[in-house]
Amino acid sequence: MPQPNLISWSSILTSCNISNLPHIALSISRTILTTTLLIPDHFVFASIVKACANLTALRQGKQVHARILLSPFSNDDVVKSSLIDMYAKCGVPDYAHGVFNSISKLNVVSWTAMIHGYARSGRKFEALKLFDQMPDRNLFAWTAMISGFVQSGYGIDGLHLFVEMRREGVDIVDPLVLSSAVGACANLAVWELGKQMHGVVITLGYESCVFISNALIDMYAKCSDIVAAKDVFCRMLRMDVVSWTSIIVGTAQHGQAEEALALYNDMVSAGVKPNEVTFVGLIYACSHAGLVSKGRDLFKSMVEDYGIRPSLQHYTCLLDLFSRSGYLDDAENLIRTMPVNPDEPTWAALLSACKRHGKNDMAIRIADNLLSSKPEDPSTYILLSNIYAGADMWENVSKVRKLMMVMEVKRVPGYSCIDLGKESHVFYAGETSHPMKDEIKDFEVNNVMTKRVCTKSIGECLRLAEPEMDMMDSESNRRMLAMQKKYISYETLKRDMVPCDRAGASYYNCHARQANPYNRGCEVITGCARGVQAIKT
Q1: Out of 133-142, 188-197, 429-438, which region has the weakest mean confidence (pLDDT)?
Q2: Residue 256 pLDDT more than 50?
Q3: Could you say which of 200, 211, 215, 235 is the most buried, measured as most Cβ atoms within 10 Å of its Cβ?
Q4: Cβ–Cβ under 8 Å, residues 465 and 509
Q5: Rounded to an integer, what distance in angstroms lies between the CA atom of residue 512 and that of residue 510?
Q6: Average pLDDT of span 103-123
Q7: pTM
Q8: Rounded distance between C-alpha atoms, residue 30 and residue 497, angstroms
Q9: What angle do CA 370, 319, 337 make, to 5 degrees?
Q10: Percent of the chain at pLDDT above 70?
């Protein structure tokens, strides 16, 4: 076309936005605004703002807003609705609300964009207040609220809204809201509720929807039901990169490294190009299986074959691979030479590996780095104290403890949690406030189960529970072990179970850096993202 007109530019911008190519749309918008004599109309302005919203490009969005204010379309409701959406997606809902208040005749799009902006920014009460004021709440408004709450970490509130929506009889003609509800179950690791949500998906006929199946795979994997996750995956008629990545990451997190790598080979054979998250799961799998060479090869392939720039998460997984396998010099070299700045958890992972492999000199050097960058983190002090204690450097142990007091660093108590029926119970170390404390105490005294809480020696148990437990604080250790016994006693007491000798179940403590397995008798508990979930009987 020798000289594109406004209609042709508008069509190109719309196509770019629909095809998820906002970078190209923004580049074209610069051409329209700076090198042509055309005056954009409200459709062109709305498309440009949408591109800024999809890129969360706040600075460019403000610049376009300034141009709009100088144009004849400064009061156009379509343009203003797009501005609300842009500011909401950029995380500045107050700016969005300013535009919202200036609209003469609010429509469903404006209401929904504003509500979603508040919800996804964690402004729960403002979102609920606006949602209650909305005159005609359709499915998309409910979806905006539920998805916004789930994205901002208010999964329970999102699920409550989903139940309320169902009670009001809202017709679910779009499955996106189901994806958000299943995602909430995944984030909260509520297996029973997740199964019920799966039933809703089947009842409404959306099980064949790819992104719904992807959400179900992720949910079951995070709830430690990898068998159900695999079943959903195998039933899919079409898998995209998210489908493959979800099942690969899920199997990797459940210690099935060889199967995760086999799935990756199947994925490549199917012609699906892996993304950055796929490689996070693969390197994670290699880390937990000790496959150092394979992990190196995958990292190299990610960069050279697929052109993926490694992120901090990739480097952290590679660091974990080296650390777990005892390649601590390689790990330290990686952390000091990688092009992205390591964060505190990255250094802390290397510190834990040094403690595990007895590299005290390296551990002390790393601990000094951590304490200078994040002096308020109690786990670093506790790890350093344990390192000094293991090396019989008691004077330094005392110095660390005094430094903690001077810095007013408080240790977060360890805890265990359990879901029974519709109730969740949390047991903290040293806690005496549980309403059933007397029954639990009697059960501990009378039942032989308490003798099987740990078959190892007390010292071995305390070593397993690191880094959260301070080896120099015997009272703290006593409270931790008592908490663990209360957890198992309560769970057994409530279920009216007879202790058995079946092997294979795991009891997980919720610690700051990792969950540590304790072998015990009954198959009722399995570790998951949330901590401890009683999901099998």
Answers
A1: 429-438
A2: yes
A3: 215
A4: yes
A5: 7
A6: 89
A7: 0.72
A8: 69
A9: 75
A10: 74
Write out the DSSP string of 448-510.
Answer: GGGGGS-SS-HHHHHHHTTTTS-TT-HHHHHHHHHHHHHHHHHHHHHHTPPP------EEE-B
pLDDT (tens digit, 9 = 90+) per residue, 389-418? 777 778 877 877 877 777 776 666 666 666
Do residues 359 and 329 lie in contact, with contact meaning Cβ atoms separated by under 8 Å?
Answer: no
Fold of 348-410: 1.25.40
* Chain position carrying tokens 């959400």: 215
Specify whether the CB–CB gap between 258 and 289 falls below 8 A: yes
Distance of CA 183 to the CA centre of its chain: 10
- 3-class secondary structure, 420: strand
Query: What mean pLDDT is predicted for residues 44-54?
Result: 90
Tell how far CA 234 is from the center of its chain: 24
Separation CA 441–CA 439 (nearest Å): 5
Q: Flag the least confident range among 60-64, 221-225, 253-257, 390-394.
A: 390-394
Token output for 98: 């300013």
Q: What is the mean pLDDT of residues 67-86?
A: 89
Q: Which amino acid is at 478?
A: R
358-370: pLDDT as tens digits: 887 787 777 777 7
What residues have CB less than 8 Å from 443, skipping those under 6 apart? 450, 489, 490, 492, 493
Q: Does residue 467 have a cis peptide bond before it, meaning omega lies within 30 degrees of 0?
A: yes
Per-residue CA distances from 317 to 16, 161, 177, 323 (Å): 35, 37, 33, 10
Task: Specify the domain boundaries for CATH 1.25.40 within the chain.
Answer: 348-410
Q: Which of 310, 311, 308, 254 is nearest to 285 (CA)?
A: 254
Count other Cβ atoms within 10 Å, centred on residue 513: 15
Could you identify the residue written with the tokens 């006929």?
Answer: 205
pLDDT recorded at residue 164: 95
Strand partners, 527: 532
Whole-number average pLDDT of the chain? 79
> Of 438, 451, 531, 440, nearest to 487 (Cα)?
440
34 pLDDT exceeds 90? no
The total number of residues shown for the chain amounts to 537
Which has the closest alpha carbon to 483: 533, 429, 442? 429
Cα–Cα distance, 454 to 484 (Å, whole number): 10
Q: Distance between CA 236 and CA 216 in Å, rounded?
A: 11
CB-CB contact of 515 with 417 (8 Å): no
φ, ψ at 415 (rounded to 5°): -150, 160
The string of DSSP letters for 278-295 reads HHHHHHHHHHHHT-HHHH
Token pair, residue 319, equals 């660091």
Looking at residue 518, what is its pLDDT? 34
- Sign for the pseudo-dihedral over CA of 270, 273, 278, 283: positive
* Each residue's pLDDT tens digit, 313-333: 999 999 999 988 889 889 888
CA gap 44, 42 in Å, rounded: 6
Displacement of CA 306 from its chain's centroid (Å): 25
Encode pLDDT of 450-476 as tens digits. 444 444 443 444 344 443 444 444 445
Dist. CA 346–CA 341, nearest whole Å: 10
